[in-house]
Every structure is written in structure tokens, then in C-alpha cells.
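Input C-alpha cells:
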């Protein structure tokens, strides 16, 4: 059983940066694709970004975050990050990390087997 724990959320001003962490345990981290999703109040959960097992292969970003967010991963630390720059108020949401055993990083939430508890990110205008 893979366990994922997000951290690093908080309140940040528009234009600022925030780095979220997702620590994994209970499995071989390098065996799974990792993704980040977010859900704002009144909205459906949406895809943010996903990264291959090695971190050096395929990486995908939602159009809304492309050029602003990156998804570094450190397999030695069993951790994937979400580096968020140039934050906007519309980025306000609960952010979730997730693990998948697919070969390529999917964008659909249904393709992820394990999920973290979420961490709140609030961007003030």
C-alpha cells in the first residue's frame, strides 16, 4: 500500500511562489508515475501536472499552469514536488498528489491509484 503525504501549502500573495512536497512510503517510489491535481470550491478536481517514473521522461502540464508550475521529483528522497511560480488567485485550491502504475503519466484522475490527503493553497489578490 502506497501512502502519500502532501505538505507546503499556505497563503501566498499573487505573483509569489510556493513549493509543495509529496512524500511517498509503502512502495518503490521509482516504480510509479506521479501527478498533481487540484480542486477549488464549487469546481471539479482538475489535472495540474504529471511526471514519468524517472523524472527525465515525459512530463505534462495543464494549459492553465504551463510555464508557471514544474514537477520536480527526487527518487532518492521518495518525494515529488510542485513548484508554483507566478501564482494567481485562480490557483487557489486544495492540491493533491497521486501515484499511478501506468507507463506514461496520465492526465485522468481515474488512472491514479493512490492519493494524498491534500494541502490547501490560497493565493491572495
Amino acid at each position: 500500500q502506497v501512502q502519500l503525504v502532501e505538505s507546503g501549502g499556505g497563503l501566498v500573495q499573487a505573483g509569489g511562489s510556493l513549493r509543495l512536497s509529496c512524500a511517498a512510503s509503502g512502495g518503490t517510489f521509482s516504480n510509479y508515475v506521479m501527478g498533481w491535481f487540484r480542486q477549488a470550491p464549487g469546481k471539479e478536481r482538475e489535472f495540474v501536472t504529471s511526471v514519468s517514473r524517472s523524472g527525465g521522461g515525459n512530463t505534462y502540464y495543464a494549459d492553465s499552469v504551463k510555464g508557471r508550475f514544474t514537477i520536480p521529483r527526487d527518487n532518492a528522497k521518495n518525494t515529488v514536488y510542485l513548484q508554483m511560480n507566478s501564482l494567481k488567485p485562480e490557483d487557489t485550491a486544495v492540491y493533491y498528489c497521486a501515484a499511478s502504475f501506468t507507463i506514461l503519466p496520465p492526465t485522468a484522475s481515474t488512472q491514479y491509484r493512490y492519493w494524498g490527503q491534500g494541502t490547501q493553497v490560497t493565493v491572495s489578490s
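The chain has a mean pLDDT of 95. The longest strand covers residues 18-25.
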